[in-house]
């Protein structure tokens, strides 16, 4: 498709030309005239980027930008990606949350790493609407931290009607005063995942997010940070959570905080006040995910600037989106997955699954087409965001308490709180070797990863 929705906002009024948006994501250049195909070049390469007022940082990027480019597509479209690795080390591209053939999933179980200078063609059909992302599946603790993450927005046929929509990519980077990335990890980062000293919204430090007074606004939020959880609030503004990773909730929820763990997405709608003094705050409030992380003070993620010049007077009502999933049946748990931490004989922190470290975790074997119930037990003193490749799962129960019908949703990443157990169900209907792991990148690289073999 050559004609693409531009920038990150699709429902902007056409009457007045809005000023350039510093938070706009750069769209990929679609080279294919077929409207049902999105075909583009994607290059992983070094670039320079200025974060705030510190000296320029040497970063790793897709097509030169942080975050990487935005892929906008419609459900059913085919994606063709001509990928080139211009990094000084091997990489792959993993398409987080997308249901695709295993050979296209970008994991080392299914693909050999693309060497420096190497190329690879990824091609698959986008079966589901939602907000997805792509990132390397090699040395993720380093490669994602250095900037390799891009966004895929797949529109469904019945998207909720709102006045404004924006993609919010949350990240943080840990930078030294000279702008460089530290080459070692301190013990806290090894334990909790690297948390940055610079918060980013769409790659921008100290960001200001513009909103229109009175507008019913949909923010599609994605957290690409290595380890930071964002416990988001906009003080004084009720948030209406309509969806998450792979779809909409049965019943939208009215909340004042949305917890977005690494790799999760949340679809949040709110009404911008018509007359609130011009400015709101997007704030990250304390959340205890282990080791007294909840004792830290709140942090401003971004200012939210209300544009009162052209208030929306006839705002769209809060949407009740259409949910497309069918509830999968409960059943016996055949393979418990126990997440834990351990110390190696040499004193290193290890992150384990069933007391083993990847690749020594025995694979879970599943017949193609089978529906399986997995129990994920977190035996450690910290939360782990559990991610399954290739398939959505539904959360059947948490600590024995069944999920209510309104909370049922398709997820690919979920927080398993410390000392808690989640019961998940998925239909494994695509053959191949699929990864599951904690999405704190220091944890997956530290061993908390396993494979599911569907055959
Ligand atoms: Cu974002 Cu293996 O995943
Ligand atoms: Cu973890």
Automatic annotation (TrEMBL):
<dbReference type="InterPro" id="IPR011706">
    <property type="entry name" value="Cu-oxidase_C"/>
</dbReference>
<dbReference type="InterPro" id="IPR002355">
    <property type="entry name" value="Cu_oxidase_Cu_BS"/>
</dbReference>
<feature type="region of interest" description="Disordered">
    <location>
        <begin position="8"/>
        <end position="30"/>
    </location>
</feature>
<dbReference type="Pfam" id="PF00394">
    <property type="entry name" value="Cu-oxidase"/>
</dbReference>
<dbReference type="InterPro" id="IPR001117">
    <property type="entry name" value="Cu-oxidase_2nd"/>
</dbReference>
<protein>
    <submittedName>
        <fullName>Multicopper oxidase</fullName>
    </submittedName>
</protein>
<dbReference type="Pfam" id="PF07731">
    <property type="entry name" value="Cu-oxidase_2"/>
</dbReference>
<dbReference type="InterPro" id="IPR008972">
    <property type="entry name" value="Cupredoxin"/>
</dbReference>
<keyword id="KW-0479">Metal-binding</keyword>
<dbReference type="InterPro" id="IPR045087">
    <property type="entry name" value="Cu-oxidase_fam"/>
</dbReference>
<dbReference type="Pfam" id="PF07732">
    <property type="entry name" value="Cu-oxidase_3"/>
</dbReference>
<feature type="domain" description="Plastocyanin-like">
    <location>
        <begin position="350"/>
        <end position="454"/>
    </location>
</feature>
<feature type="domain" description="Plastocyanin-like">
    <location>
        <begin position="56"/>
        <end position="156"/>
    </location>
</feature>
<keyword id="KW-0560">Oxidoreductase</keyword>
<feature type="domain" description="Plastocyanin-like">
    <location>
        <begin position="192"/>
        <end position="273"/>
    </location>
</feature>
<dbReference type="GO" id="GO:0005507">
    <property type="term" value="F:copper ion binding"/>
</dbReference>
<dbReference type="GO" id="GO:0016491">
    <property type="term" value="F:oxidoreductase activity"/>
</dbReference>
<dbReference type="InterPro" id="IPR011707">
    <property type="entry name" value="Cu-oxidase-like_N"/>
</dbReference>
